[in-house]
Amino acid sequence: MANFSERFLFFSTQPRNPKLFPKVIRVIQSSGLDGKEYNEKLQSKFYDEYSKLKITEQKSGKAKDKEFAGRQLLTRAPQALGLIISRKKEKLKVTEAGKLIVEDSLFEDVLLHQLLKFQLPSPLHRETKKNKGRFNIKPFLELLRLIDTLGYLTYQELTIFGMTLTDYRNFDKTVNRVREYRKKRDSIRGHQSLRKFSSDEQEAIFYKLYKDQIDAGDINTRESKTSTTKSFMKKKTSNWGDYTDSIFRSLHATGLLVMSKGRTLSISDSRKDEVRFILKSVNRNIVSAETSREKFDQYITNPNIPILLSDNKSVLISQLDEYRVDYNEYDTLYNLKKKLYKARELQRSQRVEEIANELKQRNFKDIEDILTTYDQISSKEIVDRPMMFEWNTWRAMSMIDHGEIKGNFKPDDNGMPISTASGDNGSNVGQGDIVGDYGKFKIVVEVTLSSGKRQYDMESEPVTRHVGEQQANSNVPVFGLFIADKLNDTVIDYFYKSNLINSSVYKGHIDVIPMSTDTFKEFFRKASSQEVQPETLFKIHEYSTRRAKEAMINDETETEWHMDVINHMMSIIR
To answer: What's the mean per-residue pLDDT of the chain?
Structure first.
């Protein structure tokens, strides 16, 4: 059981990306921890095993307190959603919902069922004196209702208004506040800074929420000492932003919603009937926070409640008929759900292919949109920047050449990304963020927003491994492109050295050409204005490998190799 003192919606950021929930479960199962006593030794072992996955949003294996780091993952989001039960001096348990969510074809269905039961307060998350009586809500249910009622919800609107809807009885007031906000925003467009307008609105709401604490000088936070109103506000709004990000990702991951340019969520046209059924049938009242932990666990871990449209066998069969999918009428409910998911996944892939074909037309508006999106990512104007960075680079690569470019992101019904590349394709071969197949060679593209030492720690070895594994398992040459918003010198040095080493494991030299976002934008701007042939791209790789050997013989540095490769790359695209 945990207490929370926030006055805006709370949802754990451990892990932040819902696509990592199955990874947590798989580690528990593969490490033999399911059914073992939940204690510090188990927490430490879990952390060690989870770290081996080298997930980019954590500093894998480097936590000073392994017990705490393991506990953060085992007691936060996975437990809040009923996927596991972790209680001191009792056995760690992967629940029925946890066992089901590890299957890709059931992930969205199980996640939706579990999110709709999450409530504040609850026996797992109790209010404190600082926020007592402010909460009475199933956040994901009411946010879904808000999106449906308003037609869409921008990220700023979710942050400012959705996150401060803490009692469902204030729903209509929140709808009116959003509509008024939109009117004001439209009236100042072109005359004032919209970003400042949104910031001022959030600040005004913050001071209203916390006025009594600020006036009383009660401005310490649990995480850190905040001695001034400014530092108190900074810490609270940082948490506010983190929780918004986590909730936004989870909503999108259900498959019910589609995203527009990393800023707006709306109901997918093909899922509106399901959403309307949810809003009509799912009880808005929460389970009493005084319910016993045992009874609440039975409720929260049950993947069969609430009853949704997708739990109706005749509805599933009707939907499968629409997709023209074969089925056996005696199939179990879950088998039918799996088939429906695969049909939707195929349709999503087809939408991505349509977008790729549109991009190959190299229309000016698409070129400008890609460049603008890079600027918005760099200036932090877009939510889930790593995901959008990967997606935008896939768009750029799809436009400038003739290869079969596969972006390893999971798309929604509109072809927009739900989550970033998993790092492997299930065959123990590192896949990379983007893989271009040009027939006679392949390019593996990796992107990152990490910087400084973290960029070296998190990216250097995995990038060369992904390129190397592709090379070792391919009968054609393979090289890599590494694009970082701010390129670190130590990464350039690492890739230079990897180019020089002839590896028996990876069957040759591993060539990865690093560049900053600005460099890639310049390259893209030139390349998108013409029809670039595959041979031209391969010449960049040939020059990089040859120049690395020359630099070594001539006792030159990695800086000289890198500068010459980038200059050559720009010169052959005229």
So the answer is: 92
3-state DSSP: the chain helix, strand, coil percent, rounded to 5? 55, 10, 35
Q: Which of 46, 53, 69 is nearest to 19 (CA)?
A: 53
Give me the amino acid identity at 235: K
pLDDT digits (tens, 9 = 90+) for 300-332: 999 999 999 999 999 999 999 999 999 988 899
The H or E element that residue 389 is part of is: helix 385-400
- In order of 35, 94, 293, 306, the CA distances from 38 in angstroms are 8, 12, 16, 29
- Token pair belonging to 391: 């997606």
Report how far residue 143's alpha carbon sits from residue 251's, in angstroms, rounded to the nearest whole number. 9
How many angstroms separate the CA atoms of 15 and 57, rounded? 8
**Other CB atoms within 10 Å distance of the CB of residue 8:** 22
Rounded to 10 degrees, what is the CA torsion of 522, 524, 527, 531? -170
Closest CA to 142 of 119, 124, 126: 119
Measured between alpha carbons, how far is 146 from 134 in angstroms, rounded to an integer?
A: 19
Q: What are the helix (H) ranges across 61-135?
A: 66-75, 77-80, 96-101, 104-115
Structure tokens of 122? 């609850």
Is the Cβ–Cβ distance between 252 and 152 less than 8 Å?
A: no
**Phi/psi-derived region of residue 525, left when phi > 0, alpha when psi is between -120 and 50, beta in every other case:** alpha
2: enclosing H helix or E strand? strand 2-4
Burial 466-490 (b: 16+ CB within 10 A, else e): bbbbbbbeeeebbbbbbbbbebbee
269-291 pLDDT, tens digit per residue, is 999 999 999 999 999 999 999 99
410 strand-pairing partners: 419
- Specify the pLDDT at position 220: 76
